[in-house]
Design goal:
Blueprint lengths: L11 E6 L4 E11 L2 E10 L9 E5 L4 E12 L13 H47 L4 H46 L6 E11 L3 E11 L2 E12 L2 E12 L5 E4 L1 E4 L24 H5 L1 E2 L29 E3 L4 E3 L6 E11 L1 E6 L7 E8 L9 E7 L2 E8 L7 E9 L2 E13 L6 E13 L9 E8 L8 E5 L10 E2 L4 E8 L4 E12 L3 E2 L2
Helix pairs in contact: 1-2
């Protein structure tokens, strides 16, 4: 068995990008000879995971893969003389690097000269002081020497300033040239990997090798672009891909997967959960303890996290494919790849939840017609005036409803006021807490603005989980009556406002509890 000195090319032909790594597929055409032989293929990324190497041979005759491994070679970078084949940027860097030491030595000499002139001026002033004290004035000599020292100090100081300015300019030029060279020229890799493949062939002929392996330093996240045009909305689904694997992916089929290959697949270990009974004291049997708590309405998918979140796939591995081959450079930058696009009928409304924010927001609702699940990710919002902001899209199943907020409107103003009163009845000793919420909505329209706008106001009332506490919305106290009250306690009004109009909405609800209830 022998290894050929020139490796066989093994290009990347397909990539499956996972949440925090990538599975790379490579193919190569081989000319095999009968018997056992060892082939050298590559180069490949030195970051390839050894234990994930898998090779398959396709041939019309018997051919078997005996061994496959990756061999890495270290090539240290060293200084090399410039040649005519080097780029102008490299020649420019070398010229700047050669000029910098000369200017630095000239600067040091000028500083030394100025220091000597400073000491000479100090000695001259001391001589003037001693001569004046001894009554031996030499005004003409002293004036001439002072003028000569000052002239030399001014001349050398100006030369020093010119040299320092030139040094600063050269430093900036060297930095810009090195940055330009880093962006345009690729240095040879210090660590290079090659595949050593040992095969056994029953006859001579051509065969096709398919090699797959995992590699780190690659990930993807979903991103969207929503363009609202009247009553229709166009949503584009993109995949933002980063990769720094040491090689470029050029014109390869790209598959995006939410599978987490690094997650453990073993079930959790069972532990003992012991339940015991104990007698309740008489004081606890006579009282019912309750408490008020804030609870977010549960939705599909995990809770959001700060920073770069993981891919929210709704608990099921999703696979998305790019419609055409793509090229992703291995520069570690973000590359957007278009996955799908659809246009759907959109229904918009102006909604406000004054308890959370006094802003009136345009909310657009439409259906997911992309044919695949929309994963959670950022959305660039586009309206008729152009880019209007960035929002967040939650996980949405195919055909499910989608809700997007397109920003607030400045011509609405909402003020919320709340007050509470408590009363205790004499016979039943029930405590009744009455809460009143007033919402004042105003519309400030521009001149010439006509037509009414409907603003949807949302408020909430507590939802009781125990029979000892009752919550009741007072229909007589509410003005106007709510249009809807759902099971989660969300109260809704559809308020119509003309240009320059204002309305006041009042919500009154009662929370009553028996004498045994404590904690309210």
């Amino acid at each position: 068995m022998s290894t050929a000195p020139k490796p066989i090319p093994l290009p990347v032909t397909a990539v499956t990008c996972l949440e925090d790594r990538a599975q790379v597929e490579r193919t190569a055409a081989l000319d095999l000879v009968p018997g056992v032989q060892r082939l050298r293929l590559g180069p490949v990324s030195a970051l390839a995971v050894d234990r994930s190497l898998h090779a398959e041979l396709t041939a019309p005759y018997a051919a078997t893969v005996l061994d496959v491994r990756i061999v890495r070679t270290w090539t240290p970078r060293g200084p090399h003389p410039l040649t005519d084949e080097d780029s102008p940027l490299r020649h420019r860097v070398r010229a700047l690097e050669e000029e910098l030491p000369l200017l630095e030595r000239q600067r040091d000499r000028l500083r030394t000269r100025l220091d000597v002139l400073g000491r000479l001026a100090a000695d001259l002033l001391r001589d003037i002081g001693e001569g004046s004290g001894a009554g031996e004035p030499e005004q003409s000599r002293w004036a001439g020497e002072l003028d000569r020292v000052d002239e030399e100090r001014d001349a050398y100081g100006e030369r020093l300033r010119s040299v320092e300015a030139r040094l600063a300019t050269l430093g900036d030029q060297l930095g810009e040239t090195e940055r330009a060279m880093a962006l345009t020229e690729e240095e040879p890799a210090e660590l290079v990997g090659h595949i050593e493949l040992t095969v056994e062939a029953g006859a001579a002929g051509a065969a096709v090798l398919r090699l797959t392996h995992l590699t780190p330093c690659a990930l993807w996240r979903p991103a969207y672009r929503a363009a609202l045009d009247g009553e229709s909305l166009t949503l584009e689904t993109d995949a933002v891909v980063w990769q720094r694997t040491g090689e470029d992916w050029s014109d390869v089929p790209l598959t995006l997967s939410t599978a987490r290959s690094a997650s453990a697949g073993a079930p959790p270990r069972l532990t003992e959960d012991r339940l015991t009974l104990k007698d309740r004291p008489a004081a606890e049997r006579r009282a019912v303890e309750v408490e008020l708590r804030e609870e977010e309405i549960a939705s599909l998918g995990p809770a959001p996290v700060l920073g770069l979140p993981g891919v929210d796939d709704g608990g099921e591995a999703r696979v998305l494919r790019a419609p055409a081959p793509v090229s992703v450079a291995g520069d570690g930058r973000a590359h957007r790849v278009l996955l799908s696009s659809f246009t759907s009928a959109a229904r918009d409304e102006y909604a406000c939840a004054p308890e959370l924010s006094p802003l009136v927001t345009q909310v657009v609702r439409f259906e997911n017609l992309s044919g695949h699940a929309l994963l959670a990710g950022p959305v660039d919002l586009i309206r008729g005036s152009g880019f209007s902001g960035r929002g967040t899209l939650d996980f949405t199943a195919p055909g499910g409803p989608v809700e997007l907020a397109f920003g607030s409107l400045d011509d609405f103003h909402v003020v919320r006021e709340a007050e509470e009163s408590r009363d205790t009845t004499g016979i039943t000793q029930r405590t009744v807490a009455t809460r009143t919420v007033r919402l004042r909505v105003s519309r400030f329209s521009a001149p010439g603005d006509a037509g009414e706008r409907v603003v949807v106001l949302h408020e909430r009332v507590p939802v009781s989980e125990v029979s000892a506490v009752e919550v009741r919305v007072s229909k007589d106290g509410c003005s106007p009556a709510p249009d809807a009250v759902d099971a989660e306690g969300i109260v809704r009004w559809d308020v119509s406002l003309p240009p320059g109009g204002h309305r006041t909405v009042t919500l009154v609800y009662e929370v009553s509890a028996g004498a045994k209830v404590t904690g309210l």
